[in-house]
Amino acid sequence: MFDGLLMLGGGLAHFFTPVSLFNIAWATLLGIVIGALPGLTATMGVALLVTLTYKMAPDQAILCLMCLYCGAIYGGSRTAILLSIPGTPASAATTLDGHPLALQGKAGTAMGLATTSSTLGTIVGIIALALIAPLLAEAALKFGTYEFFWLALFGVIISGQLTAIDDPLKGYIAGILGLLVAMVGMETLHAHQRFTFGISSLGGGVDLIPAMVGAFGLAEILGVMKRTAQARIISSGDRVIPRFSEVFQYKWTTIRSGLIGTFVGIVPGVGEDVGAWASYAAAKRVSKEKHMFGKGSQEGLIAAETGNSAVIPGAMIPTLTLALPGSAAAAVLIAAMFIHGIRPGPLLMTENPEFLYQIVAILLFSTIAMLIFGLTLTRPLLTVLQVPRERLMAVVYVLCVVGSFAITQRMFDVYVMVAFGIIGFILREMKYPMAPLVLGIILGDLLDLNLRRGLLLTNGDPSPFFTRPISAVICIIIILTILMSIPAVSKRVRSIFTRDRGDASAQG
Predict the structure, then answer these.
(1) Which residues contact 97 (CB under 8 A, 6 or more apart)?
(2) How far is CA 310 from CA 65, 98, 304, in A?
(3) Which of 101, 262, 358, 426 allows an S-S link to 110, with CB 3.0 to 4.6 Å?
(4) pLDDT digits (tens, 9 = 90+) for 88-119
(5) What backbone torsions phi and psi does residue 288 show, to the nearest 5 degrees?
(6) 368 or 273: which carries more pLDDT confidence?
(7) What is the pTM of this model?
(8) Which whole number is the average pLDDT over 228-241?
């Protein structure tokens, strides 16, 4: 414990320098602006910034990316409250009560509560990160080839299940497409080229950054340009800094939403929007003011904002300990870590234990910066929202092209970005989620390598994949997840439980 506290103190001291504090300030503010502008997502912002931090020192690069991530998730609440347009998907639940509060002349109050709730949610997640991550990393050392195969598959499946818009099958299909993309290029065991179709540029596979910039950046640009013009901005003339009583009144909602958001973050590839909706639903279920939800409930607003912000440190737990991204933005962070020579995974606590506590320190500093900017820069941020989206998207497109080209200086990567942008736009229009697709590309190598390595170790015998205890448990969880996503099966299971409860109450 004391070693952890010492390393946390070392992490805080490491970033308590003029250069680091400056990077924290501008990256967090940039994140808030990106989050506040409809059409720019946290994932897109992080993906674009990765290309700009290529020449930075590894610790400062990760610092900037983490601060932008935190700021963007929070920044989406601005447009959710003032325009009823979520700046990021994570803020979709915030619109339900944030905008009605703004219509009642309480826009300042709503933004103040959103700011403090995001701060408290992040702090709950930070505590969980500092406590759980070392334990999970120690447990992950027991994982072998067979366990990592199932873990990679579980990440894709659960992401497809929870991020699907209307049908889990679409999430599974998106995840499988990502796995297929990961198969392209040189395979790692025997150095054979697969699915390159004679294109020499595909010999090294499809680079993650251009694919991600295209799927989240260009696809978003095309989607924004298709949608109608933005709504009228509601001004905020009331008090922004909330009273202590307003925050303390819903302390249990804050704690519960923080824990739910953290748990959602731990599940690979799910994301902040699920954390917000899950927290909102839980708050509504137990609230004494159910009738106010959707009509301007402060409790509903607090639950949504606490939940989505708590996902950020929660997502860092599997990201750092298992190299499984807890969200789409965390997937980009994994790529950035590898680019900068940092290897997340089970060996992190052995090879680089101080890095975990540096991430905790970064989250603490970015949370403080977010609180300061959120409470003091309300009016300047309102002027940012008045920038015409057509001009903004043109700038974003240039950044997408430059960002895709910058890392390897190949025009082929620009073509990859454009291709994935068009494919991503088509899939979005058909209600296919993007997170499983990107997660499939990231985890494809892990899944493929461990599958073939496991079969090689046993001369083609697949039984260890199903007989080893941890492998068997993960396999059963995956099967149950898939079965419960089938409407007929889930309906049957729910009817059994409903009947059992009815019988029990009748006997009572």
Answers:
(1) 110, 292, 293, 294, 295, 296, 297, 298, 300, 301, 304
(2) 17, 19, 10
(3) 101
(4) 777 878 888 888 888 787 778 888 888 888 89
(5) -85, -5
(6) 368
(7) 0.79
(8) 58
